[in-house]
Amino acid sequence: MTEHKLKTWDAVDHLEDQEDMVLYLNACIDEDPGDGSLVRAALNDIARAQNMSRLAQETGLTRAGLYKALSPEGSPGFDTMLKITRALGLNLHFDQGTH
Asked: Which of 18, 33, 71, 99 is the most exposed place for a label (fewest CB within 10 A)?
């Protein structure tokens, strides 16, 4: 019997273009439990898909600092989140919610 190894699923493998990234991030924003954990995880995935070294250079943060800020234990400030989203070519907008 042949043993098959399953590859761990990684969102990065499915973020092929800007539209994918926006849809993914918006879905995570909608489903976030209120602590920012899903948004942070989505930005981490998007950053890895886009090249973390380039992102570090564009944000003025270190690569290690980005990984730390976007890790599950991270707690990036709003200024850091803005730098990251802007460097990823994403815009942050607010609209009237349904709550």
From this structure: 99
Residues 66, 53: Cα–Cα separation, whole Å = 9
Amino acid letter, residue 99: H
Determine if the pTM surpasses 0.90.
no
Amino acid 99: pLDDT? 64
Residue type (1 letter), 67: Y
- Nearest Cα residue to 52 out of 62, 42, 38: 62
Query: Does residue 30 lie in a domain region?
Result: yes
How deeply is 45 buried, as exposed, middle or buried, from its count of CB atoms within 10 A (0-12, 13-18, 19+)? buried
Separation CA 84–CA 91 (nearest Å) = 10
